[in-house]
Amino acid sequence: MFTDDDRELLDSPAFAKLATLMPDGSPQNTVMWFRRDGNTLRMIAPAASQKAQNLVRDPRVAVVIDALHNGYRYIDIRGSAEVRHDDTAARNELRQIVARYIDERADKYVESLSADPRVLIVIHPGRLRSHHGAPPGTS
Amino acid sequence: MFTDDDRELLDSPAFAKLATLMPDGSPQNTVMWFRRDGNTLRMIAPAASQKAQNLVRDPRVAVVIDALHNGYRYIDIRGSAEVRHDDTAARNELRQIVARYIDERADKYVESLSADPRVLIVIHPGRLRSHHGAPPGTS
């Protein structure tokens, strides 16, 4: 589903903006590390976090991933999130995710985390839009 | 309500990620130019756009604004959006918003837009969180 061009952005150390739904149906929007795995995106969160609880209650998400140094290049995705309550799998995945951002410090970071259980969030894109903007007037 | 520190980020030409609610209650997340005006954020959209229609139906929003070259510095806001159907006011506001991003090309850009009516979106923050992160292991 992702094109080569999408993968180029998704495999860069960009940040995901993850919109979930609060208990009252209002949106929440948070910044997340992530990793692309095939045609899914993977993220980690504490099981007790608001966003994880939101996703367990309602799996519908909208995600923006924008290029680090070009706000006019971004992907927006609407889809659903699967939440896996497997702390070991989550920490193993987190090591891979974190390595994208802080490389050799990833292991140390993951080992420094509290024992509070983490969940693995797997996002399955439904609709995807890929934006290649440029500041108006420059193209 | 915004601190000096918040204003420093909000007055930079950062991009807003605006989460709204689709007719079925699922989230939408889009990238927006914006301008801070006092304790509100202002954005413009075509009246016929999905996001504008979403906001008219349900004003609840969640907005992330992240610093241009530091993904670990961001503000997330939950609040409500007021939609003003005033095309003239929207275009005047747009001129000010666009000038933050493309400066001297703003007038030309605004004049080049289609005649499709625009709405002025005024976001009133409810809860705000200001994040001053750093890559783990560097602090």
Brief synopsis:
Two copies of one chain form a homodimer. The first copy, chain A, is an alpha+beta fold.
Write the layout of secondary structure elements.
The structure is a homodimer of 139-residue chains.
Chain A: H1 4-10, E1 15-21, E2 27-32, E3 35-37, E4 40-46, H2 50-57, E5 60-67, E6 70-84, H3 87-102, H4 106-111, E7 118-132
Antiparallel strand pairs in A: 1-2, 1-5, 3-4, 4-7, 5-6, 6-7
Oligomer: homodimer
Structural class, judged by helices and strands of chain A?
A: alpha+beta
Distance between the amino and carboxyl termini of chain A = 28 Å
What is the strand arrangement across the widest sheet of chain A? 2-1-5-6-7-4-3
Q: Which range best describes the helical content of chain A: under 10%, 10-25%, 25-40%, 40-55%, 55-70% or over 70%?
A: 25-40%
Large-scale geometry of chain A: globular
How many individual β-strands of chain A? 7
Summed up, the helix count of chain A is: 4
Low-confidence stretches of chain A: none
Average pLDDT of chain A, rounded to a whole number, is 94
Task: Give the amount of beta strand of chain A, in percent.
Answer: 35-45%
Query: For the CA atoms, what is the radius of gyration of chain A?
Result: 15 Å
